[in-house]
Structures are given as structure tokens and as C-alpha cells.
Amino acid sequence: MKILKNLFKKSQKLTFFYSIILLTTLTSFICFFIWITPSDYLYIYNRPFGSYNSTLGFDHIYCINLPFRSDRREKINVIAKFHNLDIDFVEAINFKDTKTLKHYSSSLAPHHKACYASHYKTYELVVSNNYQSALILEDDVDFEVNIKDFLNEIQPFLPNDWEMYYLGNCAWDTSNTIYYNGNEFGSDLILSKSLRPACSHAYAVSLRGAQKLLKKLVNISEPVDVALIDLMLEDKIFSLSLLPSIINQWKSKDDPSDISPGSKDEPHNLKNSTLELFGYRRIPY
């Protein structure tokens, strides 16, 4: 009987001890959530895991593709399968489709006008579907093997009011406004305000950004990527650039450009190419 009483007393002490620990933990947890701001809730809930989902943390992924370029569609599907991504193909407007192109006011040459119209069409899809963000790809891209890890590294430093976000471009595009310098953390990634991000093969738009582009990219006289740079230089849209690029153009002699036929631009190589991982090889010009 004495032994039972001792056991009962010990159990009471243990129960009291664990109750104190539980109460302290709950109090700390509640105080933490009272202290943080509403925008912090959004960060805590979404950001650490967002880049690992099937749309890389964006609401949607679009890829602009001409129907007859099944070779490029095949490569995009390889990339999508490897990275477990949901990519929605947008039918690009053919430069020969004069009936459709006449609805877009622009003095551009047919190939560049078709490219512009295809991007404009994609902005319309973002707005009509009310996506808060969407990644827009052209169909000649290649991904870094570790793209999700790179995006996850950057996500906590993204300003909430971004309107465009380049994951790849054809220039070393960095400004004096730096949001993340990976050199301080053993990484080579840099996130900065965009300056002149040439090319338009891989960039995201927010809903607000897409709405702005629909209003401002009207009757353009320069290729769409140049027109976008003009908006940035005039501070008419808030754009970010990630360097080095984690999505680049796949340039090869057997994969000619649909916008600039005959061009022989040198490729900007990735550290670890997804397409090369699957045996694709570039043929030099």
C-alpha cells in the first residue's frame, strides 16, 4: 500500500511537470503569432514549401508553343516529368496567321509580332483565371536540375509587391538594389531589381503585373523583351531578376529559332542541365 502511495505521488509530480512544459510551449506559441504581422502569416504558411510544389510556388505555369514544334513540346514534357511539374501549353500565334495578328496593334515584323501577341495572349489568361502569379515559359528552355532548391533559397527574400520576376535571361542583369546576395551564405545566387533582362523565355508575372502589361504593351514598335525593359527603365513595372539564370534557352543547330530564323547565338549554359541529364546534346552551329 505504501508503494502505491509513493507511485501516486510521483505520478502527480510528473503530471504537474509536463503540464508546466505544455503550458509554457503554448504560451510561447500564442505570443509568437500575436507578435508577427498578417504578411508574416502568409510567409510562414506558403513560402518555405511553395517552390517544391507542381508549379514551383506560383499559381500556374504556362508554356508558349507552336503546335508544329512537337520536338520542343517533347523536351518540355521531359522537364515537367522529371521535376513533377504541371505545365499548361498555350498555343502560340503563328507569324503567318495574319487574321489573328491584325487584332494586335504593332509595327513589328511578322515573327516578332507573333511572339509579342503570344505573350500578350498569355497575360490575358493569367488575368481571366485570376491567378495571383504565373510562370511564363517559351518552349526552347532547359532547367537547372536543382531548380526547386534554388527557388526555395530565394523565396524568403522576395518582396511581396513584385510584378515581374525573371528566372532566366540572356544578360548578367543586376542593379544596385540587391534583395539577396548568396555570397554571404555560401551560394552564388543574387536577387536584384531588374535592369535590362534581355530575352523573354522564363519570367513570372503577378496578377497586378499582368494587368499592367495588358494596358502598357499596346502598339509596341520593339520586340516584346525590349518593350518590357523600357517599362522597367521608366519604373512603370516592378521587376526582379535572379542570377545566374536557373532556366536558360536550349540553343542547338537542330533546334532553330522560330522568332529569329538563322540566328546563331551562343548558349548560356546551366550548371546542371535537365535535358543533358536525359541524353540531349547540343549540335554546335
TrEMBL record:
InterPro entries to which the protein is assigned, alphabetical: Collagen_mod_GT25 (IPR050757), Glyco_trans_25 (IPR002654)
CDD domains associated with the record: Glyco_transf_25
Highest taxon, organism lineage: Eukaryota
Membrane-spanning residues: 16-36
One GO molecular-function entry: transferase activity
Start and end residues of each Glycosyl transferase family domain: 59-226
Keywords: Glycosyltransferase, Membrane, Transferase, Transmembrane, Transmembrane helix
Family: Belongs to the glycosyltransferase 25 family.
Stated name of the protein: Glycosyl transferase family 25 domain-containing protein
Lineage: Eukaryota, Fungi, Fungi incertae sedis, Mucoromycota, Glomeromycotina
